[in-house]
Description:
disordered C terminus; 6-stranded parallel β-sheet; alpha/beta; Rossmann fold; L-2-Hydroxyisocaproate Dehydrogenase, Chain A, domain 2; disordered N terminus; 363 residues; 11 helices
Amino acid sequence: MDSQNSSSKVTLPAHGQQAVQRTSLNNLTQRLNICITGAGGKIAYSFLPMLCAGEVFGPETKLDIRLLTTKNSLAKVQGIVMDLEDSMYPLVEKFHVSDDPINMFKDCDYIIALASHPRVAGMERSDLTKLNAKIFNEHAILINEFAKPTVKVIVVTNPVNTLCRIMIKHAPSIPAENFTGLTRLDANRIVVKLSQLSGAPQSSIKNVIAWGNHSRNTFADVNHGTIDGQPIRKVIQNDEYFEKDLQEYIATRGFDIINLTGVTATISTAIALRDHIKDLYFGTKEGEWTSMSIASDGSYNVPKGMVFSFPVTCGKDGVKIVKNLNINGFAWNRMCLSIDELEKEADLVKEYLGDISKIRSYL
Length: 363
């Protein structure tokens, strides 16, 4: 099909809902090269069936899937590919498995960054951050050289915001807005909790925001959201809950899942990743926004260049921060916690970011 024709209408099955009609922003792009790093991990394992089934890029887009892993995990990922092949996914033209990032990144349209250094007993978070920073620094340099200049990179590995910032710095030929970090899981968790509290369907809850760092300091903001078109704070009249209990719920939900299951929240992370990429590819709906970590342009007094989760819209003009929302004192104090935390993270990996000027424009 001619890629210059007008936009296509595709029918996508939404998770837990009836199929919905969405329009691709990509003018009938019929084939995409997709690379997943850290392909032997649990999140990749949960995400791959959705990707192959057309739940991410739609039922008309053919996929060339590159699975980048470590030498020690090659056999495991080859086994996963065998399982996927036997599942009969007609949209997948070919799978590739390799430990060579150059071959995997070459001419990629989307790169999903899941690679992570294994955490061993006694390892501090700061140690893991430095090891992951080294991986993402190396990958960014190669992506800059070998991927398409229009490539979209989605960072999932923690610390999401700081690793995304490292990639932006070391891939200067790729627009900064093409790098996004996953905070959709935080936003999805806000929606789930509000649905439980109000009894309203999840689909009726719009425009909640996950601000800041993807950490215990993420700020769950309901001040601009609606339930069935009504302000959330009007439907659920409980200020104390929104300022205390909801914040604690978002901060600890991931740890609670680990404590009960022994593993991270792989299924919900994969669902959030699917939702994140669908918004990038198809665009957000008119009047609605989502949450993504992107490089700040100085909006809301967040230091320019800091990767921070904002409310954003996605469209043909790219990913854009929603401007001019009213930020009250409580919200601002919560956002400042993330700014401080992100400055400390940047200082921890300054060999990859340089000496970050600590300009606190919010003081």
